[in-house]
Structures are given as C-alpha cells and as structure tokens.
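Sequence in, structure out. First:
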Amino acid sequence: MRARLVLLLVAGIALAPAIASAACPTRAGAPSFTVAVKDPPVAYRLDLDSAAVARTAGENGMAGLKGAVPYGLTIGRYDLEVTVDVDNIRDGDRYCAQLRAAHVEIGLKQLDVIVDRRFAAGSCERQAVLDHESTHVGAFREAMRYYVPAIERTLAAAPVSLGVQADARNAARAVFLAPITDSLKPIFAAINARARDANARLDSPENYAAVFARCRHW
C-alpha cells in the first residue's frame, strides 16, 4: 500500500531565432493571469493478480518493497502546463509581440488505485485496502490545491517582458513562456515534496497495523 508520484512539466514551445528585446510599442495595461485546477476521477484497477500488482509497483519505482507483494497501490502523475496568448503587431518588416494573457493548468494527469484481485468484491479486505488507498488519493489532491495560492502570487510577480520584436509572427512566444515556466518550477517541486511526505506518513507501520486489524482473512 504505497503511493508513487511522477511529475511532468510541460512548456511546449521551443525558442525561435531572431528575437530581440528591442524598443517595442506597448499597449497600456498589464497582462492577465489565470490558474485552473484539473482533478480527474480515480481510475480503479481491481482485476490484477499479485504478480501484476508487484510488476506495476516495480515499474513505478517502488523497489523499497523488497520483494513483498503490495495489496494495493496508488499512482499519481502531476501535470503543470503553461500557455500564453500573444498579440503580434506589425512593426515595419518585423513583428512586435506583446503578452496578452498567461494561463496555468495544474492537476493530476493520472490518478490510479490498484487493488489485488485476491480480495473478492464486498470483502472486508478489499474495502480496507480501498479505504487506505483513498487516503493516498487525498494526499495527492491536497498537495496540489495547497500550492494554488502560491502559483497565483508567483504569476503576478513573474519577470515578463512587455514587448519584444521578432522576425516571424508568433516567434516570440517562448520569450514570454520561459520566465513564467521557470518561476513555477520551485512550486512544482514543492508540490511533489508535500505529496511524497504525506504519502510516506500514511504508510507508517501504525497505519498498516490499523488496516490489517480490520479484517481476519489476509
């Protein structure tokens, strides 16, 4: 009954050539920033045998089980994606790119709960494992939501250029995207650490003992 966190940070736009932080006419008003949280439903797998559960644990880096076959697993995969909206104004033979808005979507790209099929539907043992795994699900979700205010504050203070010149339309997007994404990386790491620490506490010997004490036929 372990939890595993996998991180994915998406920026998605490569820096194009011919970008210049030259004097560029800028419009009045600051760009807008928004943050959205995505929280998909849990995907349950109740059909795997013990060997498949053990293999899944190994594939997700849970070598610390030391050969033991877990009764249940929770696998979480965070995703943070930054997108920018840019206005491109013709400036002679070049474009003046101005940031209009930036949007951050933070959430769980994957949230799987796996329970060994040795425990029949409706059994005390299956319900005990499911209840324990639900606490891991809560830890993943709490860590994500805990840092939303920090993301909002960081966006407001991000060092974003007001305007840059570029040879091609949309070529300057990465100039705006990179500093925003870089400013959020420490928060993304903090989300990971908070979820990891919470999940480790949930897998304490005391919590395991309480799970096993609920049922008779393990």
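Second:
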Amino acid sequence: MTQGWQRRSTPLLFVAFVLPNLTPALRSQELELRRAVANPADGAAAATAVTTILRNELHASQSDQLARLLELGEPAIPACFARLAGLSIEGDSVAEGIDSTTGGPSEPPPDHQLLLHALRSFPESAVDEFLRGAIALAPELRDTLAIMRVSGELGRAASLALLQSAMAGLDPRFHGHPVVAGTLRNALAAILAGDRTARGDLERFLLALPPAFATCTIEAIRAADRDLASALSARLLGRQPELDRVLLEDLERHPPQRARDGFAMAEVLRKLSASETAAVHRASSYSLRRFADVLSARALIVRLGDTDERVRKVAHRSLLEMSGVALGNSTKEWLDWVNAEVSWLAGPGSEWVGALDSDNVAEVLQALGSLARKKIHADVFAAPIGAVLRHRKLELRLAACEALARLGTLACREELATVLDDRDPQVAALAARLLGRSGVTR
C-alpha cells in the first residue's frame, strides 16, 4: 500500500467495518448503522471470515480470495462493504488517488479491487437491499458519502436508485455542499461508465434530485456523453422552474453541438415564454439568440411586449443579434420585418436557392452571396448550400464553405464538417479554418 493511500484511509477508521452484532473487537471500528443480517450468528462468522481472508496469511491468489469470499454468501455483504467503504471514503479513491511519494496517481490497494469484485459478484438484489437499509440508517453525512461512493463504484444502472435514495434523505443543510456534489458527480460518472443502460433513467433521476445538485449531475452526464447532456436538457426544460434556471445557465456554458439538439432546444425555449418565473422567462429569451429562425424571432417579438422591462430588453438584444438588422424595440417594426422576411423567402429567396443549381458560375456565386446575408433562414439554406460543396468547380465549393460559415448555425456547421476530409486539400483546409473560428474542433 502506498503512502498516499495510507494517508487517505488512516484518519477514517470509523468506516473500517459496518453493521451489526459482530464481535466487540470489530464493533469499535464499525459504522453505527445497526442493521441486522438475517442470522446474527452467520453475520458474525462471515465478518470474521472476511477479515481472515483479507489478512491472507497464506498468500493466496486474488482469485482464490474471491472464491472464498463468495463461498461465505450474502451474510458477508456487510463486512465486504465496510472494508470497501474504509478504502474509498476520502474522495474517489480510484479516480483521484495521489501517491504522495511520486505526485502521480496511486494504485488502489489490492483489497479494493477484490472487495469491489466480490460485491459485484454477490446477488445484485441482496447488495442493493443492504445498501438501501444502510442509507436509511446512516447516522452521519460521512457515512452517507461512503455509501454513495461504493454505490458508484459498483458501476451499474441499479445504483442510480441508491444515489437517489441517499439524496432524498440528505439534510437540506447539505444541499449544494461541494463535497456532496463532488461525491455525487463522481459516483454518477462511474455508473454511466460502467453501465450504458443507466442513461435511460437519467431524466427521472434528475427530476427527483434537489435542484442544488443539478449542475454537478449535468457535468457528470456531459463527461460521459456531451450530446446526451444536451438532449436531456431539452427534454427537462419547462418541467421545474428551479431546474430550468440551472439548465439555462448550463446552456450558456455548453450550447448544443448537433443541429437536432439545437432544434429541440429552440422549440422548448420558445415555449418557455409561458413561464411564470421572470428569471426563466428572461434567460430563455437570451438563449434564443443562438437559434436564429422565423419561429424564434416571432417568439422574441412577443416578448417585446412583456410586462417585465428586463425581459423586453433581453428580447430586443436577442433580436438584434439574430437578425443582423438595426431596429428599435417597437413590436410593429419587428413584425413588419419578420413578415417581409417570410415573403422574401417565398419569392426572391426561393429563386436564389434555385439558382444554386445553375451552370453559370457567376449566378451561383451571386446566389451564395445573397443567401449568406439571411441568417434568419440559415437552417432552410443549409442543405442546398451544402450540396454546392460537392460541385465540380473548386471556386464554387470554396464559396459555399464561406457562405455556410457566415450563416453559422448548427445545421450549417454540420454541412461544413462534411468536407473536413475533402479530396481537395484547399476545401478541407478552409472548412477546418472556418469551423475553428466558430469553436468547432475535429
């Protein structure tokens, strides 16, 4: 065992063993959870046997130790958990262990992996039943944290319910506490890495959490799958006002990277105009600037007449950024503008789109220039301009790259990304440079 591990575990001997009716010598090192196993005699014998197996005076292999632990059956679960909790109690022991002698990550002691493997090998229902009981009877925060860490290390979807139970029973004084948030984030990350099926329960999990833990939860989900986090945020927005505020703040830090997620998010943001919470109303108006289209513009124009002056100001600022035109805060002015844009799209705009198929290079270049000035219709133009990326004329392909970059929506960026590996190095290099300016990396 490295010195780093010794320093982490030495001050925390209170978690060295858990639970009931063990010998007096062992009880002094137990968590006071007081949960009895089905047969006290079997529990005490199993705890003693676990201690003997881990002491490993006969230098048995880990596979032999594991086989002996499993032979003890379910009564050994409390003692195995107690030992593992003792090794995991300070921070995420595997992911964040630092060896004080080298300054680098330390390896967990052999017992850690052995005990974890044993708990994963016991019947899942029995382990979860024990942990649920332990959560209900955990006397102190540090005990709850130990249970959360072990639940995460089990790395299976069922552990989400254990984390949810731990959060539900948490003293409100600790809502948002950084240590609890960090433990939850790391435990959730381990579960998502260990069992992909856990992703299907995340929506329900997030809705059941105290809102103070929403940020760290979204962070853990994003670490596992960035696009999943964006899609989940779009599904959750509008469900709980307190959660909405957290998700909208997160949206500003981490906007969607896929067009389909952007479309879903924009639809939800438009609906949030009906929110009774001024902060949510204002934040959603600000976020709508990212999703330029006629529907979003109309939603913002409605908000120009909001009773809250701050919402009106935010809606106006978003319209200015989305449209690229300099109009005042008059609802009528903006309605006239958006109606004119709709008429343009049906008339000249449609003709310019048709011109993209012309054999006349100058005509296609003129069409690209005209369409690139209409960001409000960018998602409509993304596919037709994207088709020009495959034109036989290099000049037109380069111009199409510029037009898509100027429009700049997620759909346009996705079209531009299709030529990152183009056979012509000039097209590939230009696409990479233009995407790089918008913050997109390969």
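Remark: Confidence is low (pLDDT under 50) at residues 1-41, 90-105.
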